[in-house]
Amino acid sequence: MENHTSKRSLRVALVLGTAVAGTALVGWGGLAAWQAYTENAGNSVAAGTLVHNNYVSSNCASVIGVAPVGVGPGWCSAFMTITGADPANSVLPATGVVKIDNTGTLQSTFSMSMPSAPTGSLCADLTLQVTSLSAGGPGTPYPTTALSTTMGATAVDNDAGTPSATWSPNGTAGTGTGATGNTFTFTVAAGAGFAGHYADSGQSCSFSILFTQTAA
């Protein structure tokens, strides 16, 4: 009799122990189910674009990262071709026009330079001047200079006649193909020695202009 009672007590203890263990598991599971979370997903960073067009006879898009060297990809159409110049005719002075259009999304500054010296013996007897059209009247970012040396980086103006740092993305001052501040006129004229230098006969001069755009 006593043996049966002991077994029954053991079974009751096992059942109660199992119930308590189950309650503990349910309790911990319940705590886990009540945890709360928030997430800020989809964060991203995108770079703006730095692009401009150089327009002479057709649009030529800028190249990024590496300055063009010589002729070939990255250089645009020549804006000036002069033939038959002599001291007695009106071929000189001659002009060529370049239009620069900021087509990117970033504000930027613009400068022009002549990274390589002009080539040809005629260059020493010629001069170069660069003017731009602005609201305050024609500006002269590059004054009349002998066409015989390189041109350092020279800041150019926008159509409000203010420094080029205020050039902005599309739709604001300084943008749009043909905007006055984007138009630069290059004038090549005879220097003081051209008329008297007989060795200039049959000679030539060539040069390249580089426009550089930098994010402001």
Structure overview:
The protein has one helix at 2-33; strands spanning 52-55, 59-61, 94-102, 108-114, 126-132, 139-146, 151-155, 183-190, 210-215. The protein is an alpha+beta fold. It has one domain (52-215). Strands 2-1-3-8-5-6 form a 6-stranded antiparallel β-sheet, with no helix packed on it. A 3-stranded antiparallel β-sheet has the order 7-4-9, with no helix packed on it. Strand 5 and strand 6 (139-146) form a beta hairpin. The radius of gyration is 38 Å and the shape is rod-shaped. The chain starts with a helix and ends with a strand.
Structure, briefly:
By secondary structure, this protein is α+β, with helices and mostly antiparallel strands. The chain has one domain (52-215).
Number of domains: 1
Largest sheet: 6 strands, antiparallel
Q: What is the number of E strands?
A: 9
Apparent shape: rod-shaped
Number of distinct helices = 1
Rg: 38 Å
Question: Please, what is the average pLDDT?
Answer: 75
pLDDT under 50 segments (min length 5)? 12-16, 159-181
Question: Taking strands numbered 1, 2, ... along the chain, how are they ordered across the largest sheet?
Answer: 2-1-3-8-5-6
From the helix content, strand content and strand pairing, which structural class follows? alpha+beta
The topology string of helices and strands comes to HEEEEEEEEE
Approximate strand percentage? 25-35%
